[in-house]
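Dear all,

This email documents one entry for the complex benchmark we are building for the journal club exercise. For each entry we list the sequence lines for every component of the assembly. Then comes the predicted three-dimensional structure of the complex as a token string, followed by one or two observations. Please use this as the template for your own entries, and keep the labels exactly as they appear.
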Amino acid sequence: MFSLPVLLYLSALLFSIGIYGVLARRNILVVLMSLELMLNAVNIALVGFGRVHALSTTSGEHSGQIFTLMVLAVAAAEAAIGLSLLLLIWRKWKTIDLRELCRLSG
Amino acid sequence: MEPLSLSRAEILAVLPAGFLFITGLIQLLSDLGDTSKNSRHEKTHLAMIGATGALVAFASLFVQGTLASTGELYAGAMTDDLFGRLGAGVIIVTSLFVTLMSGGYLSSSGNNKAEFHSLINFSAGAMVLLCQATNLVSIFVAIETLSLAVYVLAGFFKENKSASEGAFKYFIMGAFSSGFLLFGMALVYGLSGGSLSLSGIAASGASSDALFAVGVLLVLIGFAFKVGVVPFHSWVPDVYQGAPVLAVGWMAVAVKSASFFALCRFLYHSGGGAYLDQILVALSVVTMILGNLAALNQQSLKRMLAYSGIAHSGYLMIPVLVALSGNDLSIGASLPFYLCAYAATTLAAFGVLTALSVSTDRDNIGDLNGLAKSRPMLALGFTIALISLAGIPLTAGFIGKLMIFSDAIGAGFIQIAIIGILTSLVSVYYYLRPVVAMWFRDPRSSFDLIPAPWGVQFTVGVCGIATIFVGLFPDWLVELSRISVETILG
Amino acid sequence: MPTFLLLNSGIMWPSVAAGNLDLLSLTIFVILTIVVGAVLLILSELLGPRRRDPEKETIYECGVPLLDSAREPFTVKFHLVAILFILFDIETVFLLPYAVVYKKLGIVGLAEMGVFLLILAGGLVYLWKRGALEWD
Amino acid sequence: MSGWLEHLIFGILAASSVASSFLVVTRRNPIYSALFLIVMFSMVAGIFMLLDATFLGFMQLLVYAGAIMVLYLFVIMLINPRDDSLPEEGGFTEKTFAVGVALLVFSLLAFGISNSETVSTLAEAGTIPDLPEVAQTHGAIEAFGYELFHKHLLVFEVASILILVGIIGAVHIAMKNKPAPVELGANDEERLVNDV
């Protein structure tokens, strides 16, 4: 059961759950969390491929893991900027509802 | 376990991006003195640092001596071939002009902080690396660095509400698209035998695999968001209207060309799956049609330029599609040329918009009435830019479109070329409306036109002249772009 | 394979390589803490006497009766510090691999890490001068 | 390590990560979604350790569950400490559109995974535990750091620029600019205290 196709199905499933979260939810906080969820789903696929190709790859034994470390750094910087933008929106509009935000700004 | 070592070529290859990062840092630290007041006076020292940094970075492009590429650098993370350097050159020149313009523009809007200048330089450095990146990790990190910088630039004027709301929408769309981009890269990495470098992916020959095609499609979707191709363009008009004019100019020119250079390099190496040609055809056709039609009845100048930017992304898709379908890559040579022409033209257009926005923040076409009488030079610059965007002869835009459509016909994509020509005919109408307003309407503009900052006048002048010059003597740039395309595959 | 789990079958026990021992002990530690904590809680929940008494419900000697729910909005200062914590946390994540390998990387490695830290020191100076760290 | 145990543990981790991610997306109260997201990050960290990426597993716990979720909880407490101020949930059309796009992407990926020859050839090599042994130090911090600095030096430097851009952005956007608006009357004093 713990094999590459299952890992890929798992990461695809988490990715789609993240997509649902971004598109369906009106609470901006949950949208930002779903974005983190999507990036994390990809990490599973990356590390899985890295492990499978560990001995045969040309780009180095830990190439998948190093890519994931970079995704970690990017996700953290994105969360930092996203939440400060959210704070700016909260200060100006006093709402964290995405649809209302669109309505207010016309 | 030998210790780390950097070859001379590696150090020289990273100089352009390195100088841009250093200038950004110096600008940031040099402006820390007066934190309190929102300074009204124009901080020329920031513009000077930025300009010298950009010029030194441009010079360091040629310090390598030979234009030939010295192979894989930093273990395959980056290359210094001509294609990458041509992209880097476009980015550096654009950052030079935007830095010159930003001094006057920011001080007029009372928000004159060094963050704007340093973010422009940081994102310029990241774009230079993006044009020269040859492995998936460096492409991804470069795209994310420049996107983060541009999200902050879009929301730079915190006070006005629509800017912060547009920036937030841009952030969510951008983060969403980088999720797709990343998943596509993970699949391409996994299915090409675990090789991160683009040459390894090309060598692995997995492009017939179904999941590999899905991976390339997801990467294409990620890039399509960044570039603003139709199904993924909904953020473009709002952000272009909300964000500061200069940040919009930076997005329209630099971010688009860097993304296209990286997309081109990626697709050339990965080859793309079986269905990629049809998808690219569909994307470019729909983008051209919708982009131009939507721009027809736009009253606001910024929204009109936003939709024209989307339409031009559609035109730029054609050389990518043409090069991918045939196995002869030199056909796709029109892409670098068109990007250079597009960069010069759009910079002139946004220069004029910056000049206008210094004196008024109303930006519908009616405000241009009689501009020719009050500001003949500005009106001339804007007219040249619009004519070149429309593709009317004697301008660089015309040569670019000519090349694109002749390549498309040469490679057998007759219908796309016809659609392209028809849509650019349609675009002539909405490009000429402001020209008519400027030259043939009597001025009823109620705002007093304060003279544009020197940086803006300089930019509009130089870019206007460059557009005409390339329009009249295009063959040096055509030759350069044809050679550069051949060097991609190394 | 990570043989870090206590439950693996006996045949694996003697062949646990030295490298994995610390992982194994880590797992034992984690499992023991969870088990001991759970046992204490559950036992006191089940065995403890449960006799309601108004006297017991009153607030402990010098307590202040509650005015409002404890969830007051934080000031924005916490938010900015939390963001900066994340970003400098990422810096430590990159420092960790360097700290383990710096001997093998030699002078060029030192120069690379120097550039990395210089850029982030520039960020710190920017922060400090912009007044992001002031608390009042 | 006998195979069945690793399959069992992977099954538990995968099932709980899918369940907690589903709960993250569906809970009305953002605090519960944040807590379930922490659970999901720890499950994914467990999967990393099963895949011999021990350093990465701990970094995932340190950065994601440790730092990012702390920030999320800070923001949640900052924005809606009371439960009544939650935005009411999206209409039916948004939900169906979102489910449609999510299902479309999942079916595209599942179609790709199911009939991709490369994945099936890779899977023939057996499940992950039966794969050829990797070196004992694989995934440990030393080999990871060595490879990070030798093969990905350029990306390491660009990462510092990424963090610096994050710092500049966060400070510029999140900080209220110094000159507080002066038009506040005396009676607005207490409003200033509550104003965030």
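Observations: The longest strand of chain B covers residues 72-73. Chain B touches chain C at residues 1, 3-6, 21, 25, 28-29, 32, 35 (CB under 8 Å).
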